[in-house]
Design a protein that fits this description.
The chain has about 425 residues and is an alpha+beta fold. The protein has four domains: about 70 residues, no CATH class; about 80 residues, no CATH class; about 90 residues, Pdz3 Domain (Roll); about 130 residues, no CATH class. A five-stranded mixed beta barrel has the order 3-4-7-6-5. Strands 11-10-12-13 form a four-stranded antiparallel beta sheet. A two-stranded antiparallel sheet has the order 1-2. The protein starts with a helix and ends with a helix. It comes from Staphylococcus arlettae.
Length: about 425
């Protein structure tokens, strides 16, 4: 039963993170007028699909990411290439309206064509030898034209609906929107949890045994109003005061049963492992706070937690990159789908609240990792857009395609190595 719960939780977590990321890309792409032929969750063979308007929504077998296929983004190849034999249907202006690649549609007045040259990005034409006269002809592609393949009509994007021909700011927003939506998901999850759980206050709920708070005599329902010279109004003030005071003995001023009392307390120093090479020092008293449900505090709490999560993940990423140059790098620093599944298995056993918090951390991690300047990732492609904005011309298309392809191969190799490392680490 627990196995099924873990599988279900993994599918939900993976599906939410990838869907939100890719929806961010598609949301801004469509608002920029870019045609999006496919929205996919997962990679590999298609296991489910449906079409809405011009976009095919698919779920694919392998849980290793997802994508939005955008017309003219340089990552797609048209299904028609020189040397192929196709059938075409034209309009009254002798423009191609349908390129027929199968026999599942019964079109009238079509022409068989051997393709000699074609351009579906800039020139929007096909040249080829027609069967009826064995002569070479040039056909422009109509503004509204389709590939007819596997029983479906797939619209051919005109120039004005291709990613390539959009302004740099539209390209930037489209590429940055994926990570942006991951950050917004993190914010939404933390705010939602804060509304559900309430926000911590400076009033004690319960005291941990043998903790500094227990030894100092702190009790349930005590309200902390001062630590040393720091006035305390809420839980965040306590954390700031302890970081400033560190582990030195200090005076704790509390309100108990309407009276003010002073206690001497020495905070406990703890080291929290952030990454393999970096730790964070914190100071605690050893008690849990009471919570309150208000209108605005959960929003502030969610923002604070999101920023802290971003700082935590950013620090881990920087540390990981630095470890490559110091020789301390290990694939244990990275998690692929297998590692994420194992983490889900561990976290889901601690409850839905921890699973949601962990999903929020994963979301900001996905956003930041995608902003790395690796050509196949959003960050690498954003660099090309910045170059275009600065120099008023796009990067040479062949060079860009080659660089992105190399980046894609690099990411694929890393993914394979990380997955194999995860399998060895957790199952062998």
């Amino acid at each position: 039963m627990s196995f099924l719960v873990t599988i279900f939780a993994f599918i939900v977590v993976f599906g939410v993170l990838v869907s939100v990321h890719e929806y961010g890309h598609m949301f801004f792409a469509k608002r920029a007028g870019i045609m999006c032929p496919e929205f996919a969750i997962g990679m590999g063979p298609k296991i489910f699909s449906f079409r809405k308007n011009e976009t095919l929504y698919t779920i694919r077998l392998l849980p290793v990411g997802g994508y939005v296929r955008m017309a003219g983004d340089g990552l797609e190849e048209p299904p028609v290439q020189p040397g192929m034999h196709v059938k075409i249907k034209t309009n009254e202006q002798d423009e191609i309206t349908h390129i027929i690649l199968d026999d599942q549609h019964k079109f009238q007045q079509i022409e068989a064509l051997e393709v000699k040259q074609c351009d579906f990005k800039a020139g929007m034409f096909i040249e080829g030898v027609t069967a009826h006269d064995q002569e070479r002809h040039h056909f422009n592609i109509a503004k509204k034209a389709y590939f007819v393949e596997h029983g479906s009509l797939i619209q051919i994007a005109p120039r004005n609906r291709q990613f390539t021909y959009k302004k740099p700011y539209q390209k930037f927003l489209t590429l940055f929107a994926g990570p942006l939506f991951n950050f917004l998901l993190t914010l939404a999850l933390f705010i939602g949890l804060a509304y559900y759980q309430g926000t911590p206050t400076n009033t004690v709920d319960n005291v941990q045994g043998n903790s500094p708070a227990d030894k100092a005599g702190l009790q349930s329902d005590d309200t902390i109003v001062k630590i040393g010279s720091h006035n305390i109004d809420d839980k965040s003030d306590i954390d700031e005061a302890l970081q400033d005071n560190k582990d030195k003995t200090t005076q704790l001023t509390i309100k108990r049963d309407g009276k003010t009392e002073n206690l001497n307390i020495k905070p406990k120093k703890i080291e929290q492992q952030l990454t393999k090479t970096k730790t964070e020092t914190r100071y605690i008293l050893g008690f849990e706070s009471q919570t309150e449900h208000t209108i605005f505090k959960p929003i502030l709490s969610g923002i604070t937690q999101s920023v802290e999560a971003g700082k935590l993940i950013f620090t881990a990423i920087v540390s990981m990159i630095a470890s490559i140059f110091t020789g301390n790098f290990s694939f244990d620093m990275l998690n692929g789908p297998v590692g994420i599944y194992h983490s889900v298995d561990s976290v889901v056993k601690t409850g839905i609240i921890n699973l949601i918090s962990w999903t929020a951390l994963l979301s900001v991690n996905l956003g930041l990792m995608n902003l790395l300047p690796i050509p196949a990732l959003d960050g690498g492609r954003i660099l090309f857009v910045i170059y275009e904005a600065i120099f008023r011309k796009p990067v040479n298309k062949k060079a860009e395609t080659t660089i992105v392809a190399i980046g894609a191969v690099f990411v694929l190799i890393i993914m394979v190595l990380v997955t194999w490392n995860d399998i060895q680490r957790y199952f062998l």
